[in-house]
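INSTRUCTION: Work out how this chain folds

Fields: amino acid sequence; protein backbone structure tokens

Chain under study, with its fold:
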Amino acid sequence: MICNHCMEIFRLADTVELNNAWLVGLSVTLMLLALWALLVASSALLYQGIRLVGLKVLEQAADALRKRARLSAALLSFVVVVAGIAVLGFSLWAKKDLAPHFNALLGGVTAEGLADVGRGAGLLVLLMAAFLALERAASQLLVRVERRLNEWQLPPEHRAHAQKAMEQGPGFIKLLLAYFAVGLALASLQLPAVLDWLIGTTLFVLLAISGGRLAVSLLHLASERLVGTWAAKSTATKYEEYFLALGRLLPVGQKSLEAIVYISVATLVIRRFQGLEFFAPYGPVLIRVIALFFAASVVVEFVRLLIARAFKVDGSNLDDAARRRNTFVSLIQSASKYLVYFLVGMMVLSDLGVDPTPILAGAGIVGLTVGLGSQAIVTDMVNGVFLLFEDQILNGDYIRINDTEGVVEEITPRITRIRDRFGRLHILRNGEVKNVINYSRGWTLAIVDMAVAYESDLKKVMDVIRQVCEQVPMLSQGKVSEIPKLLGIESMDESWMTMRIEAKVQPGTHFDVKRLLNRLLIEAFTANGLEFPYPKGVEYEGGPLLPATSEAPQEEPQALAASHR
């Protein structure tokens, strides 16, 4: 313990009143300095740390916190000054000497305490010097890494992730160095436990967020580089399809990895708060669930490829057997997808602490109950089975169902997807599929009605049409199986007569043949000087017609009536 006479405050003035004023002034000044150092400096350091993380939302919150810290420091400074004035005024009014009270406060200071403060200050200086040296070395290392990345000539999407990682790297390194430096300083200074936890937790949260963002950028870059390299090496090989599938799964995989990283960061942060430790065990469970569903998507994609390679028939002009086979391939792929996700769902339930055995045991009862309650779904499923096994429609067929006409894109046990000529996708429940008109089975007719003017030479018209029909098989590229037939006059309207032509064509080609016939007929009629019909009117010259009157006609003269007879 330091002796009392050593720690006694020197007299700063001859009179008690003036000495009290000096003591109060010094005390207020030291308290103001400590207050501003604690609030303003800590908020400024926190703001710089959040800026290193790089989150705009946190930067806005930190900026608002820094402004509030300045306002709070100003208000507390006013309170401290008013309190100092009040203490000085009370001492003058009571005529008390404040020196003994300050001597009593300083009496609690020990030599060991002063030595600890000195050692802490020295350690802070050393840590600051080490921090600056390591930061400079890390900056030089990052410059070399960036130079090496520029030499690699990365694609634009890879370069964007690399640039983001290079922007986040310096902040993460600074926070990492600051975390270890502040940890050593706090252990040496032996601050109160609350202050030690607050500073350490703040730095840890900022470091975890910054590390998570950097890890996400690096994972995006590494995964794209890896998949791109594999895809380039597998080009024109038997494994090309599988690496293309990996390319399609890459966005899902990147999102899954991103979610896993951020959940891991959240779990680490939660463990720092005693009141939130209840939620910490859910982090690994969520990570496992995400990993299971991503693995399921990979399995589904590769099973789909294996089934397609084993059973699917490729080509543009496929016969009915091949298209039937492809239709059932799509059904098997859908069934395998549902089976994989069902198994993964059971595994997820097991991870969540739910026993899936009763669910599996009651699946039959639940299915029967749902089936009885949802008769429309059962009807769709049953009708879909009959559509497939009775060979009514197949993938690629051109069909018409009520007002829907187009190409069948996909048939599932419950719905049928049809793409019409305008690109619109019609989704029909199989229970609604009735009275199917299939244009893709055997042959079909392309019917063209040609309007001919009454003034035209009918024999010449029919000869021209027959000549056109003889050209169609050669120009249709195999779409017409025989020469189209001119059936004759189909109808007679007010201004024209209609000639009907029928052509037996290959399935699904009737629109193409109709367009070809229309073009050839127009060209032939124009070349042979045949008139295209159009509505005609008669114009009368002379005086206006007398308007009709409602009066009853007068009786004709008798002689005139006799002449009519």
